[in-house]
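Work Package 3 (structural annotation) set out to generate three-dimensional models for the target panel prioritized at the project kickoff. During this period the team completed the workflow that converts sequence records into discrete structure tokens, so that structures can be stored uniformly alongside our sequence database. As a representative example, we reproduce one entry of 117 residues exactly as it appears in the project archive.
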Amino acid sequence: MITPNEYDITIYQNAALVLPLTFEISCMPVDLTDMPIVMQIRPTYSSQEVILEATEENGRVFKTDPVNGMFEIRLTGEDTKGMSFRLAVYDVLINKGTENAIRIMQGTVRVSRGVSR
């Protein structure tokens, strides 16, 4: 079992966010070439509502060096513009198949509201 890293994220409303990540097990990079990655932000852990989902398919997950376990979560200013919540939760899963998903990160998401539009 892998214990997910705890990392709290601050999103600045109306601004882009690029979060570079590397997935390693025992200090060895994991080849992500054929593994889907998903991040979801929800109001609470038990909530059915998904505030935002990041995947390769929607362009919010980008594998920068998949053989060496490197990828980025990328949100645009348009993605963050409508975020009006103050605090939510998220996690990042490496999907090695539905039953074998690995949660590598989790934490809270705080939105710092923007003034300039």
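The longest helix spans residues 77-81.
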